[in-house]
Specification:
CATH superfamily: OPCA outer membrane adhesin/invasin
Number of strands: 11
CATH class: Mainly Beta
Shape: elongated
Strand content: over 45%
Order of helices and strands: HEEEEEEEHEEEEH
Strand order of the largest sheet: 1-2-3-4-5-6-7-8-9-11
Number of domains: 1
Helix content: 10-25%
CATH topology: Lipocalin
Distance between the termini: 23 Å
Length: 275
């Protein structure tokens, strides 16, 4: 068990070093959430932040997220979450004999709701699938003047299946994938040529909708009511045309999860101890 956790942490550490080199134009890699509810009445709340390096200052940017999930009856899950991202980025432009560095600030906000079905078997195996809706915005501004380069308002529909393994009641590892269809509500820029630069085929970004695939791995470890939370994954724009995103579209999200579950009730614990 501890060897498996050690390997996961090593992989995440290597991924952080790669992520610090990422750049972006059209979208930022966003985290997701697998609630891993096990019984009716279960409640979870997670507060986390993405780890990312500010390209302007080389300091750590803080991008907080808040997630909440509840199971009103067995096998039915409901979740809602809010995500905020802020990241500085320095971009270079120019020709063969000259170049100019420009500092930008990217900001994104997204609110999501979803409902789904889950099943937890007695042999520590768990499966779930959620269908949901998100609404958000993504914008790029000049850092020094705060003048807007472009702003995208969008909505998303998504499906998210996941499998989880409980190596212990206080340790679980989940693997999943989130499939996203994103509809553009508005895509505005003072210079409309910018909207052609953020698609791989230089088409007008405002004229198209986009699809994303987000595979992820999630780890929860700790006590009965409070656990350390960690998730890492990738965001790929798979539509045609593609939005130009991060050079290495990786994210890592870390925080803490507060959990109330029948699994940890005094009556359940006594039953387990009596076996």
């Amino acid at each position: 068990m501890f060897a498996a956790v050690k390997n996961i942490l090593l992989f995440i550490s290597l991924s952080i070093m790669l992520y610090s080199c990422a750049g972006t134009k059209g979208y930022l890699p966003e985290a997701t959430y697998a609630p891993i509810l096990r019984n009716g009445g279960d409640l979870k709340a997670t507060v986390s932040t993405k780890l990312q390096t500010d390209g302007n200052t080389n300091k750590l940017d803080i991008s907080p997220s808040i997630y909440a999930a509840f199971s009103p009856v067995n096998h039915l899950g409901i979740m809602a979450f809010y995500q905020h991202t802020k990241r500085g980025m320095q971009e270079t432009s120019g020709g063969t004999f000259w170049s100019t560095n420009t500092n930008y600030l990217y900001k994104a906000d997204r609110f999501s709701v979803a409902t789904g079905y889950y099943h937890s078997s007695p042999n520590h195996f768990h499966s779930e699938i959620y269908l949901g809706y998100s609404k958000g915005n993504f914008e790029k501004n000049f850092l020094d003047t705060s003048v807007n380069v472009f702003k995208n308002n969008y909505e998303q529909w998504f499906a998210q299946p996941a499998l989880a393994f409980f190596l212990h009641d206080n340790l679980n590892v989940a693997f999943g994938v989130k499939a996203i269809y994103q509809k553009t509500l508005s895509y505005n820029a003072a210079d409309t040529s910018v909207l052609r630069e953020i698609t791989t085929q230089h088409k007008m970004a405002s004229d198209y909708n986009y699809s994303f695939i987000n595979p992820f791995i999630q780890l929860n470890i700790g006590g009965p009511y409070l656990k350390f939370f960690m998730q890492e994954g990738f965001n790929w724009c798979v539509s045609n045309p593609k939005l130009v995103g991060a050079d290495f579209p990786f994210y890592i999200n870390m925080g803490a999860t507060f959990e109330i579950s029948k699994i940890y009730s005094p009556i359940t614990i006594k039953k387990i101890e009596a076996r």
